[in-house]
UniProtKB/TrEMBL annotation:
SUPFAM superfamilies: Phosphofructokinase (SSF53784). One of its GO terms (molecular function) is monosaccharide binding. It catalyses: beta-D-fructose 6-phosphate + ATP = beta-D-fructose 1,6-bisphosphate + ADP + H(+). The lineage of its organism: Bacteria, Bacillati, Bacillota, Bacilli, Bacillales. The gene is pfkA. Allosterically activated by ADP and other diphosphonucleosides, and allosterically inhibited by phosphoenolpyruvate. Its EC number is 2.7.1.11. Keywords: Allosteric enzyme, ATP-binding, Cytoplasm, Glycolysis, Kinase, Magnesium, Metal-binding, Nucleotide-binding, Transferase. Mg(2+) binds at residue 103. Pathway: Carbohydrate degradation; glycolysis; D-glyceraldehyde 3-phosphate and glycerone phosphate from D-glucose: step 3/4. Its cofactor is Mg(2+). ATP binds at residues 11, 72-73, 102-105. One of its GO terms (cellular component) is 6-phosphofructokinase complex. This is ATP-dependent 6-phosphofructokinase.
């Protein structure tokens, strides 16, 4: 193998730049040419390629977003799109591609592998919703962003004796809500993986009110449904002052944490090694602190389960 490509796809995540840097620098260290593919699979179809040298990834390890930019691409999901992509890669002499993204991006990478282009996936998404890896790049930073925001919200919630519902991202997964909720001491955490009842939420709020607590934070994963609608239902029952904060895309930006930079650097470097060893359709994961290579098709087919032990613990500690 002489030339590899690297692209970022799907929602961006802090640490993607650190992963790109690792792929480029490890690739060059191993004597490869590295080509950046801009704007994910859309850029691939458009032949939007850029040669990467050592300097092209200087000064990016600490920056959020992705210097290669990213996109969600419908055209690439068709057979025609995938054939076209292979033509573009072959014309440029790219034999292997590192795909940094989430499960949708990996489905595309599996299709490329079936058509003869070696692919390795690096899990980059704030949602942490990929099976086969304990953590994805960007998750730790997003959780820390939520913590910072909720700590501030708690200040004002206490001053005004208000209950706040804070809606966090995660798509269909509750991982961000779970980790951030536990770390913020949220009184209630709602995640899509666990059923909830308004009765029980109200009961918990009233119980803490009785022992003198006049403010509360409920962290709600977006996969549960609209925090606004849930707040309306609770308000009808308790009649206290309530506010809703939807944190939104602030969770996707910002400088990556040390944990995300280290993870991204390790995973990006390993992806290059896997391509050089002749692997394809593999995803780099981390399990019990060790990097592993797992079957990419298997990773996208298996459902992700968050650590529900955190859910139980948070409930006990917020009693
Ligand atoms: O997958 C990352 C993510 O931020 C999810 O948490 C969220 O549901 C979605 O992307 C938002 O997508 P968009 O940026 O396209 O609105």
């Amino acid at each position: 193998m002489q030339t590899i490509g690297v692209l970022t796809s799907g929602g961006d995540a802090p640490g993607m730049n650190a992963a790109i840097r690792a792929v480029v620098r490890m690739g060059i260290y191993r004597g490869l040419k590295v080509v950046g593919i801009r704007k994910g699979y859309s850029g691939l179809l458009a032949g939007d390629f850029v040669d990467m040298d050592l300097g092209s990834v200087a000064d990016i390890i600490h920056r959020g977003g992705t210097i290669l930019q990213t996109a969600r691409c419908e055209a690439f999901k068709t057979e025609e799109g995938q054939r076209h992509a292979v033509e573009k890669l072959t014309a440029r002499g790219i034999e292997g591609v590192v795909v940094i993204g989430g499960d949708g991006s990996f489905r595309g990478a599996v299709e490329l592998a079936k058509r003869g282009i070696a692919t390795v996936g690096v899990p980059g998404t704030i949602d942490n919703d990929i099976a086969g890896t304990d953590t994805t790049i960007g998750f730790d930073t997003a959780v820390n962003t939520v913590i910072e925001a909720v700590d501030k919200i708690r200040d004002t919630a206490t001053s005004h004796e208000r209950t706040f519902l804070v809606e966090v991202m995660g798509r269909r997964a509750g991982d961000i809500a779970l980790s951030a909720g536990l770390a913020c001491g949220a009184e209630t955490i709602l995640i899509p993986e666990e059923e909830y009842s308004i009765d029980e939420i109200v009961e918990r709020l009233e119980r803490s009110f009785k022992r003198g607590k006049r403010h509360s934070i409920l962290v709600v994963a977006e996969g549960v449904g609209s925090a606004m609608a849930i707040a309306d239902k609770i308000r009808e029952r308790i009649g206290w002052e309530m506010r809703v904060t939807v944190l939104g895309h602030i969770q996707r930006g910002g400088s990556p944490t040390a944990a995300d930079r280290v993870l991204a650097s390790r995973m990006g470097a390993m992806a290059v090694e896997l391509l050089l060893q002749g692997h394809s359709a593999k995803m780099v994961g981390i399990q019990n602190r060790r990097l592993v290579a797992i079957d990419m098709e298997d990773a996208v087919a298996r459902p992700h389960r968050p650590d529900l032990g955190l859910f139980d613990l948070a409930r006990i500690l917020a009693i």
